[in-house]
Amino acid sequence: MGWTSGWTILAGGGTSFNEAVVPGITGLKIDRSLLRSAWLDNDAFGTLGTITGFARRLGKTCVIEGVETLDERRFGESCGASHVQGFFSGRV
């Protein structure tokens, strides 16, 4: 995909939103733990949608990591991710 730089959002909140607007940041990467949480919790699903919307408004790509099944891929796309990354995408 040619990432020159990126940003990872950890489900535990290890990254600041301020880092998303630093010059040179071209995309946001969502950690797989948030994807896993979103399967179980509507609040986490809403958070995923908020983050992907934030990326779109900033004009950045948004990647969800850890996609291992077609259902997870569809789920990530329904949240608004521009890309998915993981075992599944390597098999397609």
Protein described:
45% of the residues lie in helices and 15% in strands. By secondary structure, the protein is α/β, with parallel strands linked by helices. It has one domain (26-91). A 4-stranded parallel sheet has the order 1-2-3-4. α1 (32-40) packs across α2. The longest helix is centred in the middle third of the chain and has 17 residues, at 42-58.
Largest sheet report: 4 strands, parallel
Q: What spatial form do the alpha-carbon principal axes imply? A: globular
Give the proportion of residues in helices: 40-55%
- Please report which band the strand proportion falls in: under 5%, 5-15%, 15-25%, 25-35%, 35-45% or over 45%: 15-25%
Structural class: alpha/beta
| Strand line-up across the major sheet | 1-2-3-4
Q: Count the helices. How many?
A: 4
The average pLDDT is 81
Q: How big is the Rg?
A: 12 Å
**Unreliable runs:** none
Number of domains: 1
N- and C-termini, Cα separation? 15 Å
Write down how many β-strands occur, each being a DSSP E stretch of 2 or more residues.
4
SSE diagram, text form:
Blueprint: E1 8-9, E2 27-30, H1 32-40, H2 42-58, E3 61-65, H3 70-79, E4 83-85, H4 87-91
Parallel strand pairs: 1-2, 2-3, 3-4
Q: TL;DR?
A:
This protein is of the alpha/beta class. The chain has helices spanning 32-40, 42-58, 70-79, 87-91; strands at 8-9, 27-30, 61-65, 83-85.
What descriptive keywords fit this protein?
four-stranded parallel beta sheet, globular, single chain, alpha/beta, 4 strands, 45% helix, 15% strand, 92 residues
